[in-house]
Amino acid sequence: MNARTFAWFVGPSVLMMLVFIAAPLVSVFIQSFHVTSPVLETVEVETCTPGFAAQICETETKTRPLLDDAGKVITSTEFVGLQSYRNVLELSRVADVFAKGNWSGLLAIDFWKALRFTLTFTFITLPIMLSTGLAIALAVNLATERIKGQVIFVSLLPFIITPVIGALSIRWLFIGDGILTALLEWWLEADIAMFAQAWTIEILMLFYRVWHVAPFAFIVLYAGLQTLNMDSIESAIIDGASRWQRLRYIVIPHLMPLIVFLSIIHLMDSYRVFEEIVGFASESHVISLQWITYDFLTPDDAGNRSISRASASSMLTMIGIAIILIFPLRQTWRDYYGRKI
User: Does any domain span residue 32?
Assistant: First the structure.
């Protein structure tokens, strides 16, 4: 393929990535170092009580946004350096926590509370998702041809459901007098409030994420099993290898590139967990890094949004994703160049 043909194929994708990915990232990065605030003016306002003979007037000073000729609020942008990052991280409160040795106080700070849940959510669901997907793939691979199609269809259903709708469905099953809550209360003969404490909400979130993404891992690993060299399996059986030994020394090494691929996708997606927070309405108990960014962008009573803090939070989230991807990407790099050599 000559250079011109290659450019025609790659050019549109590169252009889209520059316009919809690179440019917004640069914009967010720049905004994280600047604060845009309305220009305020101080005016004297006279208020009078109703009446004529005993009318009383008072003059008070008020501060209000300055408007332009079109009636829009005039704003000013100021370079603040790393101040937005310090505001998000709340380093002064973190220093107090370290000084007092009260580690539970760290979870009272929004960013660190969200970071704790995000990391827990990401690294707990990863191995469960991989093992569940592999178990389903192995079971389907051994199933008879008559039922294999039906099993694959049923296994993929959770992945088809929209994430927010799925989270809402799980919430409705357990919240208040939901069907499953009522069933558990009848079985255990005790009152159950699944959404009254943080740890039960987190368990439901972990269950939902694994239930939702395991079908994707299953279909990828099942496709990988179709390329497995059966001669190696038959040789291992003849040599007396057990089922576990065949899985450990033949199947898993063969699927390892796909496992690394699934790990990379899951780490990037789970570190940006947001749908579960919205679907389970867990803001009062459990929050994530992505939800903090959303919260900063939500207008307050005056209609103002913390664009700078939201940008700083987004950049910190990206830095976190880059850090957790170092190991799988490094392993992929080694495997690729090791095979080329």
Answer: no
What is the spatial distance between Cα 12 and Cα 300, in angstroms, rounded to a whole number? 40
pLDDT at 341 over 50: no
For the segment 190-218, what is each residue's pLDDT rounded down to a tens digit? 787 777 788 888 998 999 999 999 999 99
- Indicate whether 307 belongs to any domain: no
Token pair 């392993």 is found at 331
Please tell me the pTM assigned to this model.
0.82
Amino acid found at 161 = I
- The answer to whether residue 112 sits within a structural domain is no
CATH number for the domain that contains residue 170: 1.10.3720.10
pLDDT digits (tens, 9 = 90+) for 85-140: 998 998 888 888 888 877 778 888 889 999 999 999 999 999 999 999 999 999 88
Range of the domain at 127: 122-287
**Whole-angstrom distance, CA of residue 242 vs CA of residue 247:** 9
DSSP 39: P
d(CA 205, CA 185): 21
* Count of other CB atoms within 10 angstroms of residue 319: 9
Please spell the DSSP secondary structure of 189-254, one letter per residue: TS---TTSSHHHHHHHHHHHHHHHHHHHHHHHHHHHHTT--HHHHHHHHHTT--HHHHIIIIIHHH
